[in-house]
Amino acid sequence: MSKRPATGHKVPIGQFILQVAGTVAIIGLLTATMVRLLPVNATTAGFVYLIAILFGATQWGLAEATVGSVVAVLCFNYYFLPPVRTFTIADPQNWVALFALLVTSITASRLSTRVRMQAVEAQERQQEMERLYALSRSILLIDSTQSVPRQVVNQVAQTFEAAAVVLYVQSTGEVFRAGREDFSGTDEQLRHAASQGTQIHEPGETTWITAVRLGTQPVGSLGIGGVELSDSAVQSLTNLVAIGLERARAQEAASRAEAARQSDELKSTLLDAIAHEFKTPLTTIKASTTALLSDKPPKPEQQREYIALVDEEADRLSGLVSEAIQMARIEAGQVRLQLEETQIADLLEGALGKMKSVVDDRQVAINTAPNLPPVMVDREMMEMTFRQLIDNAVKYSPPGTPITISADAEDGQVVTRVQDRGRGIAAADLPRIFEKFYRAKDPLSKDSRNQVPGAGLGLAIARAVVTAHGGSIWAESKLGEGSSFCIALAEARTTAVSGAEVKA
């Protein structure tokens, strides 16, 4: 290998020999032309040789131009300085001319080569800057939902067309690789560079291992092979990689902070909702027991009525507590489904049986298709889901209006619809009503968003449970005509549950 000191580029020895041979061939061709075809004097020949040597220096380099200068001086002496066709010089002044040609040729070649190398270096620096800019844009557009270090090494390999790129992340001890070849360095070298904050690079080689620093603190190390980079480019590259890793760390911290904030908000909202929901049955229980313990006890018939109210409201409180616990466990992702083959009609009867006080003043019609196939569900969780939908229908429809529940088999699924006769849901609200804490606005009132009690969690929990069963849930509504909330579950023989954990 022949190394060009001006730039650090290596030229294969075969290519170098060809370039030297080309320079000599050009000098020979010019000599033959000036001697045989277009005879010229010594002064003209000297200028022609000088131009040819400058051309060689511009195209190839100083080494080739130096060889060409020596060959040109020999030809100039042999063919143009008397006595011609000998290497003898009769006139001492010709020695001066010959020496001047040699010095001028080599000096001019050196200057020309330097200018060419500077132009090449400037072009390479510009290319490095363009690649660094492209990499910075790529890092800014990294998808934070996927592995950031893996995306970084892929972007470095792609942007710099590197044969191999490897990134060691000190905090996790992971090593990420990219490129078409295996990296020649070892993992031990990567760990050493990260721990000591050092750089490993042999002069003339195209393999680098350097520490990735965030400020003065090493956070990892980067290895890159198969590409020539300046020291400044390597430093800028590691800075961009550090920025990418820090951005990922900051996003992760922000996500944790947001999750903590939402968790606190959820807890606060759940407590508010529980307090509100508990108030009604507790008020009824308190009024009943006060009447029973009064100085003038009620008649036996009334006593039995009060006791029945206390029993009913106690059951309601028990249900509320169970549902509150289930909500908290769902949000924490700690609920695992206990699947069993169940009929939809049984689920609906079970849900309505625990909602007697809620639906006493309503006409609830259940229409299930004959020979409806069973579904594989967690009975307790799915009953809670249907209770959410029925309770939602009661809350958002005028007192006394009927509620219709139907179930049909459709394309391998059992589709259940809970339909009310309320005011309906605006089209803009339909895509968001299953979001946590979202409360749809009454389409016929400007101030009714919070008139209906509740925390805005019921539909979100219903969606989480249905999705965990591999089913789907959606709403259909027309303003002034009411709404239908629909659940589609696969028949038992085709059920494929998407996951064992439930998350809202």
Structure description:
- The chain is α+β, with helices and mostly antiparallel strands and 504 residues long.
- It has four domains: 2-124, no CATH class; 126-254, 2-Layer Sandwich (Beta-Lactamase); 256-331, Helix Hairpins, CATH 1.10.287.130; 335-502, Heat Shock Protein 90, CATH 3.30.565.10.
- 54% of the residues lie in helices and 16% in strands.
- The protein is built from twelve helices and 16 strands.
- The chain has helices at 13-37, 42-59, 62-80, 92-140, 148-160, 187-196, 231-292, 300-331, 344-353, 356-359, 379-395, 458-468; strands at residues 2-3, 10-11, 164-169, 174-178, 199-200, 207-214, 217-225, 335-336, 339-342, 364-368, 375-378, 403-410, 413-419, 472-478, 482-490, 501-502.
- A five-stranded antiparallel sheet has the order 4-3-7-6-5, sandwiched between helices. It has a five-stranded mixed sheet with strand order 10-12-13-15-14.
- A hairpin with a 6-residue loop joins strand 5 (199-200) and strand 6 (207-214).
- Helix 2 runs antiparallel to helix 3 (62-80) and helix 4 packs antiparallel against helix 5 (148-160).
- It is rod-shaped.
